[in-house]
Write a structure and sequence with these properties.
Number of domains: 1
Largest sheet: none
Number of helices: 2
Strand content: under 5%
Structural class: mainly alpha
Amino acid sequence: MNPKSIELQSRYLANNSNLIGEKQKLTTTEQSDSYEQAHRQYHPYLRDMTRVC
């Protein structure tokens, strides 16, 4: 796995304080990079779409 993938897994999974099965509730982190900006913008919509399907 490449370093960026490991960093993102750490950010959104390992360091996510939500319980297993609720990790999807994390919308934002303290980061401000372009990935975080896109995640903050699109994650709520995509998360809601998975509830519908």
